[in-house]
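Hi all, long-time lurker, first post. I run a small reading group and we've been trying to get comfortable going from sequence to structure in the token notation. Rather than ask abstract questions, I figured I'd post a concrete chain and ask someone more experienced to write out its structure so we can walk through it together at our next meeting. Sequence below, copied exactly:
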Amino acid sequence: MHSIPERIADCNAGLVPLEISSVTNYAVPLKLFEYISLGLPVASVRNIAISYYFSEEDCIFFEWNDPYSLSTALDRIAENPEVLIRYRERSVALRGRFSWTSEKRKYVALLRQLAGNGPSH
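-- Answer (accepted) --
Happy to help. Here is the structure in token form:
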């Protein structure tokens, strides 16, 4: 775990492959958030959950069951460095939206709401 940042320090993008099923269609892989927290551009499959949180401006999408779609997405990155720069800037901008500090407030508020707005301990 401690060597991961060093191992991916020279990566230009993060890849989020996911086989879509009735369950995974509603999942957002933690790896996607990890790449964003590192400021890496993300090439990801598209499912219902990922599409809820991320748009075409946020991620480079490919179809999960189409190797040509993945190849096209990776070629787009390799052949157009400006695309990679734009998605890197977007990942950096998204960091705050998905930070634990921000998410913790939402989570605590939800727990309080579910508990009937009781006092916190």
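A couple of things your group might point at:
The CA atoms of residues 64 and 116 lie 41 Å apart.
The radius of gyration is 17 Å.
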